Amino acid sequence: MTARVRALLEHLRTHAAAYLVLAVALSAAMAVRMYVASAIAHQVRSRFDERVTAAVEAVRDRMDAYVATLRATRGLFVSGRRPSREEFRLFVQNLRLERHYPGIQGIGFAELLAPQEVARHEEAVRREGFPGYSLWPGGGREAYTAIVYLEPFDARNQRAFGFDMLSEPTRREAMLRALATGKAACSARVELVQETDQDRQPGFLIYLPVSASARGGLEQRTGGFVYAPFRAGDLFAATLPPESLAEIHLDLLDGPSGDPAQLLYASAAPAGGTLEAVRGLTVAGRPWTVRFRSSPGFVAPWERWLPRWAALAGVIVSLLLFQVTRREVRGAAEARRSAERASFLAEAGRALSSSLDYVTTLAEVARRAAEGPCDWCVILVVEPGGPVRLVGHRDPALARATGQALVEVTLDPEARFAAAAAIQSSEPFVTDAVSEADLARVARDAEHLARLRATGVRALATVPLRARGEALGAISFASTTRRRLDASDVRLMQDLARLAVAAIDTARLYRRAQEAVKLRDEFLSIASHELKTPLTSLALQADSLRQAAVRGFVPEPLAHKTEVIRRNVERLSRLITNLLDISRIGEGRLAIELEPVDLSDVVCEVAGRFEDELARAGSTLQLDVPGPVVGRWDRLRLDQVVTNLVANAVKYGPGKPIAVALRVDGDRVALTVRDQGIGIPREAQQRIFERFERAVSDRHFGGFGLGLWIARRIVEALGGTIAVESEPGQGATFTVELRRAPPPEPPAAPAPGAPL
């Protein structure tokens, strides 16, 4: 390989990025040129299509207006009465055709005649002041039409006076179509009889039937047609002014095929452009074809040149980019490095939030850090039983062999790059160059020094881990290359430290919360048991006093107080039972004893217990129980569920009726408790089934917010569901659905200390 070739290859290698940028920039310039050309082409096409649409709509609107005029004219012939010639003339004169309907040749009426009526008709017209009148052309036909009115009755229109349009096939087809449909019908291309030798134009006619009788064949019909003849050139020159199509050539042809021989109108603009469009148009049942083609001047000069200007600008920009490529490459490298660090932090955050076992997650973060922003990562976590040491390196074997030596150095408070120093000062420590002398100074012995050398560490940085003023540990990054650990590395480590601190602090707080929950459940269990014993004795004494009051052994004032004591003892008993259930559920000891149970009997028994309380609240309880509803359930727990639901209904709907119903659907049973109380907001309807949750303030309604939670756990333990439907101010309906035979193994309650 010659020196010149080597020099060329070296040049290409050094400037590869620059040439790549140039190639990409030139490609982008060409792409921009193509895009600009495409955008301009689209803009030009859109402008062309807008004008095409405007022209078609203008023709359609104008022809619709003419048809509407014919309908108005037909109104003169109502009830079979034909207006006089003077009335017809005045009507058309008031329309001001030349001003409001340019292009129309006139408006006329052609009378439909049977052969035996022709002579009478000619005689009648002659008596009106037209002695030379006769229907033409002559000849025998099954029916005739005679143009008797045609206004304005000028010299050109007088040429059509008395003409039988049924005698000409094109006109005849349109007239028969109008009679058959009862609607306006446009003829094919014709030459009007009004044409003279000068300025001859193609034309067409539109017919609208006026039938006094529509029975029988053509020769038996009476009435006629109001119609309008059109000279196409005059009509479309007025409808489509030249300035509206100055740069577009238009050909309007009769029929759907666009046969050039059926040309009705051609605009004056030249047709040398590249844009074309064909549109269909239906006028009074007759299809027309409209062809458009742009003229050479439709595309403006700047629209033709702009793509070239864009390409030239692109080339200039490409050359400028080529000159500044080295700086751009450096910036791109830095941006890539920032993106990698952001990605690393995102992955670290996901790893740290994936588990509360922060030792495992921090070990994973140390390994990922060693594969990315650094070569070695050492994480130290201060624990009461001694520090936790986590080492990460992309080579696990090397980490196991020599990583401990690096950990010992970071723990050495005498080393100027030690983690202990960073923890004590709460400031990051950065050592740009770890020398051989540094390693020798901190090594305990020759074997330790050898292992330190094997790590290859050349630079090291450490940041502390602190939360709420408490030292949690430190993170150290080590580099085995000559690359300096700069401020960006320290910022990355500080961001990582914040994530690690959050993970450690959250895990420790969670652990403390679990311990507090365990202590609370233990307290509730002990307190419930301790309260239950004296309360049982108190309940027995209250029942004894109540029975004595019933027998009359107790004075009336004392009897009332005895009843108050009994109610409060029952209420306190329910609260203690709820507290005991909390403890049992929390410890997974909610016992479910399945046996044949009649749910109807349970509901009726609960209703009986609430008679006094319902009377005091001024509420009524309506039961809808179909009969025995037997299933394998826990009678005591079902009684607890029904009691809680009815107690809530009485509490939140005093003075309002309460309805309890049972419904059976095959193997499933539904219990509903409906009240007309204060209702429950929609946002609280899921929350009320949680522990210590309430939908209203405890300042207005007593209770701990435990009843519905306990009911839900019991129902779920029986393999069922509980739900509520409610609107504020409209009461609430609680529905419990159970299977007659619950699953063999009811769902387990949460483990002790599970989060709430």
TrEMBL record:
Keywords: Kinase, Membrane, Phosphoprotein, Transferase, Transmembrane, Transmembrane helix. Its main location: membrane. Residues 79-291 form the CHASE domain. Pfam families: CHASE, GAF, HATPase_c, HisKA. Transmembrane segments: none annotated. One of its GO terms (molecular function) is phosphorelay sensor kinase activity. InterPro entries: CHASE_dom, CHASE_sf, GAF, GAF-like_dom_sf, HATPase_C_sf, HATPase_dom, His_kinase_dom, HisK_dim/P_dom. Its EC number is 2.7.13.3. PROSITE patterns: CHASE, HIS_KIN. Residues 526-742 form the Histidine kinase domain. It catalyses: ATP + protein L-histidine = ADP + protein N-phospho-L-histidine. It is an enzyme of class 2 (transferase). The keyword Transmembrane applies. GO terms for cellular component: plasma membrane. It is found in: Membrane. This is histidine kinase. It comes from Anaeromyxobacter diazotrophicus.
